[in-house]
Known about the structure:
alpha/beta, Aspartate Aminotransferase, domain 1, Aspartate Aminotransferase, domain 2, 15 helices, binds pyridoxal-5'-phosphate, single chain, five-stranded mixed β-sheet
Amino acid sequence: MDISYILNELGEDRENYFNAVSPPIIQTSNFTFNSVAAFRDALTDEYEHTLYSRGDNPTLKILRQKLAALDGAEDALVFSSGVAATSIPVLALLKQGDHVVCVENPYSWTIRLFRDIMPKFGVTCTFVDGTEVKNFEEALQENTRMIYLESPNTFSYELQDIEAIAKLAKSRGIVTMIDNSYCGPLYQRPIELGIDLVMQTATKYIGGHSDVVAGVVTGKRDMLKKIFELEFMAIGAILSPHSAWLLIRGLRTLPLRQNKSFESTKVITAWLKNHSKIDKVIWPFDPGFKQSALAKKQMKGCGGLFSFTLKNSSAESIEAFCNKLQHILMAVSWGGHESLIIPSIAGIPVADYNAANPRHQLIRMYVGLEEPEYLIKDIERALG
Ligand SMILES: Cc1ncc(COP(=O)(O)O)c(C=O)c1O
């Protein structure tokens, strides 16, 4: 399906709402029925019918169709956060006694889910270095029911060979799920590589303006229906119609914004690599990136998140650099219009900083929509 069609037309039945270009926000909790038979049909199968906005809502339906088509998936479910888009499918698809193999160091709340929450329900997890397919194979147990990936990682950028891992999982009847937030559907299409469920935080590039928190999962209808019918409905982490509308609006400019972020990141990483005070730059599309071949094979483009380290890095020098930035904002998250910085040490008690730990030295930057020269000037001043 043509991407311009998906972003501008798909799901939008304009003749049903006065030929308005922008779809309405159907701000209702409830929908009425003209007959008991129609009411019964809706109550019997809420996945297929619009009954109550905890299940479905027409504004959300437009968004779901677009997100599914972008991923090349049969359907999409949308949630009130990215973490709900991970935890609800995981809770739905696993049961007591099951085992998960998860890539090491995924998003922090994904670690908490598999390490601290799922064991309460008798589900165990092994975290593996995801850069080698054999590490997944070696970690599989009789009771492994899910492999969870996040490629690239959004702090240190390790990739997993998505196609090879999906193939391994299929041969053992194991469900695969990936956090595809870094690339999104424009730059990486995991369903085409054999993955069952693709999760994204829509808070980032899809929303794109740092004003909405949301999540999405795409996949086959039967799997999504299973998730929808019990855990989705019972947990109720739903998106409001207004937030869905903001995401539809975000989608209109997704290619433009993501491309700008990608192009500016090329310029900034190249500049940083030549700076005398910079030690390392880590970005999957950097020619020197250690998994560069795999990045080029499975990603069509690259996100605007990268990390770097300072020469003679110390907690003081990292803090001094970040404190001196004037335009690049210090904050969590990414994917909006504004450029951001987060030093790894902001998440570590000062006394625990270990200069020998390469992860502690990382400074993550997200490149937003400002001109790269403007951002470079800010970095140059702060390095000075
Ligand atoms: C890679 C990744 N996955 C998942 C999430 C969770 O998304 P949300 O904040 O929308 O719940 C985040 C949030 O920063 C993230 O960076």
